[in-house]
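Weekly modeling sync, notes
Attendees: S.R. (lead), two postdocs, one rotation student

Agenda item 3: backlog of single-chain predictions. S.R. asked that every request posted to the team notebook include the full sequence so nobody has to chase files. The rotation student volunteered to paste the first one in as an example of the format we agreed on. Action items at the bottom.

Example entry:
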Amino acid sequence: MKVLRTDDLRKYYGTGENQVRALDGIDLTVEQGEFLAIVGTSGSGKSTLLHMLGGLDRPTSGKVYVDDKDISRLKDDALCVFRRRKIGFVFQSYNLVPVLNVYENIVLPIELDGNEIDRVYVDRVIDVLGLKNKLTSLPSQLSGGQQQRVAIARALASKPALLLADEPTGNLDSRTSQDVLGLLKVTGEKFGQTMVMITHNEEIAQMADRIIRIEDGRILKGGEADA
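Predicted structure, as returned to the notebook:
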């Protein structure tokens, strides 16, 4: 089952001679449970692509399907609700709420959506990520690696169809990066999670099930899930 698909996805900025083709015809499929890494140099279009996949920005043309829903056609309010329910995000800046403790940060998206917390599932995520003894701590009391684990737990807590990670180890040292990526891969396998990660780090990308390379807004290799 394909959880994610794009059809001729394009994002252009400017016009005429000043036009920048950040994405220039992206066709991509990702199967349920797959861990995909997107690699490319700075300015290649990988961050723009991730923003399109997550509904954080709208394409100039083309379509993005998440869980069989064409999110490129959703109105702003509907897109916001869909993102909260179906897409989890992990950013390199963690984006934790400083006045909330670890547990409150993890369940915040669920509470914002007015849904009941699946405490058994959330407890399993917390256990796998090694956060059981940190639940009452504030983000400022945690190391960078621990904060990133909280961000991963928060992204997984609402059981999203798709988890998107934007340079998730960019602010971590190499050893902590390996630990966090290992946990991300383990949680993905344990909970059947579909993940797409962008990174410039080739070593980190090797941990994924499949790697696609993007340059000048085009996929050079690996766009199809069965490739």
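Discussion: group reviewed the output briefly. The first helix runs from residue 46 to 53.
Action items: rotation student to repeat for the remaining queue; S.R. to check formatting next week.
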